[in-house]
């Protein structure tokens, strides 16, 4: 092992222990918001599903999937850029350089939001008939697309995580499910219409973005970072590779819709809106069961970035092993819960009309458990400065997923999409593991 990576085993264990403990503490704060938010999401999902009925809820699910897919593809994971480049300037006390990084990421967020809004609105008008929407539903979807203008909040998220204020980040993010629930109740009390529920979703996005920015701005003031427009000229010189890093993390995050929104859209296109709505409920329940791990993944990235700064790959590996053991146990518990009470959960949330998606729910839960076993590999590659490796692994797995999806969905119906997810998740974890081991060997 080269001297820059060498460290006594005891030191590696101590650093890994400390990093993993901090990540768990921060994950508790994140899960406090995300976990409670997941529970609230099941409440407002139940209201919408049981009010609209199977067919109209399917249209609702398709409109959300369409908008979220575009927002994710166009948007940048700017919080990762804030942490990777801002951490060094913060440690050096270089406030001007830190402000330039924040100005750069804010510009990315604003441009992405504007482009996503225009693209979603025009795309809805063009694709509405293909997805089985009526003319009125297509118009509603086009108006809803404009709400994507408010959906990019990577920079304030990055600011709060940079200053290790995961508690404030959790409270701020909790605005989203709370305002969605309040808006859903208001829409239900008014007329319980498709348009009313989508308006509630759009208003919730705006409210959450405002709260995130107000909270982040208060932390900047508390840390002595002055307000005002930053100087963007020279930001690339002060931060070598920042544009490449931002683009690569954007491309990696753009793969997300292939796994989340594309199956809903594919089920709706090939089979119909009702099946798409059922698939959405199965996915939503599965997501709620894995929220603890999502929170841990977000908390691990800053800790891995700090370990990477010390060039301690062995400590990163130890953190990954401990995280994998924990998340695998969570995944197995989720499978057991769904196997025992899955039909009851579906009946509770969607009503008896949605029990038909139980097999899909079970397969998707198994797929999530497989994915959870290697969830820390992608943040580790990004923290080690190789988001391109994560991109290649995710990209290859996503290509395989699209192939599996096209074949199995046509052959088996909606459950084929779930089996495609399981197969592709296994491929993704394997490819990420291979990429990490190769990078680790190269750095050793």
From TrEMBL:
Recorded topology in the membrane: Multi-pass membrane protein
Principal location listed in the UniProt entry: membrane
GO cellular component, one term: plasma membrane
Superkingdom assignment: Bacteria
Leader peptide range in chain numbering: none
Cell location: Cell membrane
Parts of the chain that traverse the membrane: 27-47, 53-76, 195-214, 319-340, 360-384, 391-411, 417-436
UniProt keyword list: Cell membrane, Membrane, Transmembrane, Transmembrane helix
InterPro entries recorded: Poly_Biosynth_Transport (IPR050833), Polysacc_synth (IPR002797)
Listed PANTHER family: INNER MEMBRANE PROTEIN YGHQ (PTHR30250:SF31), PST FAMILY PREDICTED COLANIC ACID TRANSPORTER (PTHR30250)
Protein name, as recorded: Membrane protein involved in the export of O-antigen and teichoic acid
């Amino acid at each position: 092992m080269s001297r820059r990576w060498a460290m006594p085993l005891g030191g590696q264990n101590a650093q890994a222990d400390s990093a993993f403990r901090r990540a768990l503490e921060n994950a508790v704060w994140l899960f406090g918001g995300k976990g409670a938010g997941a529970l609230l999401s099941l409440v407002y999902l139940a209201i919408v599903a049981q009010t609209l009925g199977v067919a109209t809820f399917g249209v609702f699910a398709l409109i959300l999937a369409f908008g979220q897919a575009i927002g994710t593809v166009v948007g940048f994971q700017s919080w990762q850029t804030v942490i990777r480049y801002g951490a060094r300037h913060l440690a050096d006390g270089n406030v001007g350089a830190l402000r330039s990084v924040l100005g750069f990421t804010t510009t990315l967020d604003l441009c992405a939001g504007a482009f996503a809004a225009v693209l979603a609105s025009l795309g809805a008008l063009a694709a509405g008939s293909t997805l089985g929407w009526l003319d009125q539903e297509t118009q509603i979807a086009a108006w809803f697309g404009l709400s994507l203008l408010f959906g990019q909040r990577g920079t304030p998220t990055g600011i709060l995580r940079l200053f290790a204020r995961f508690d404030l980040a959790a409270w701020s993010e909790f605005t989203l499910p709370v305002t969605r629930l309040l808006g859903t109740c208001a829409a239900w009390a008014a007329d319980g219409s498709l348009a009313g529920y989508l308006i509630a979703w759009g208003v919730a996005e705006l409210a959450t973005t405002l709260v995130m920015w107000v909270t982040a701005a208060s932390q900047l003031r508390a840390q002595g970072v002055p307000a005002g427009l930053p100087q963007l000229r020279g930001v690339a010189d002060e931060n070598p590779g920042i544009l490449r890093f931002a683009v690569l993390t954007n491309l990696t995050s753009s793969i997300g819709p292939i796994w989340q929104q594309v199956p809903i859209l594919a089920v709706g296109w090939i089979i119909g809106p009702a099946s798409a709505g059922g698939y959405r409920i199965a996915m939503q329940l599965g997501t709620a069961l894995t929220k603890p791990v999502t929170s841990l993944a977000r908390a691990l990235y800053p800790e891995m970035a700090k370990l990477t700064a010390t060039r301690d790959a062995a400590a990163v590996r130890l953190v990954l092993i401990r995280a994998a053991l924990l998340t695998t146990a969570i995944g197995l518990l989720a499978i057991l819960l769904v196997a025992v009470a899955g039909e009851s959960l579906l009946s509770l949330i969607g009503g008896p009309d949605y029990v038909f998606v139980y097999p899909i729910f079970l397969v998707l839960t198994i797929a999530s458990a497989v994915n959870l076993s290697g969830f820390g590999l992608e943040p580790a590659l990004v923290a080690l400065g190789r988001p391109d490796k994560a991109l290649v692994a995710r990209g290859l797995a996503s290509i395989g997923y699209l192939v599996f999806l096209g074949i199995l969905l046509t052959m088996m119906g909606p459950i084929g999409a779930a089996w495609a997810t399981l197969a592709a998740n296994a491929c993704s974890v394997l490819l990420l593991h291979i990429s990490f081991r190769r990078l680790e060997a190269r750095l050793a």
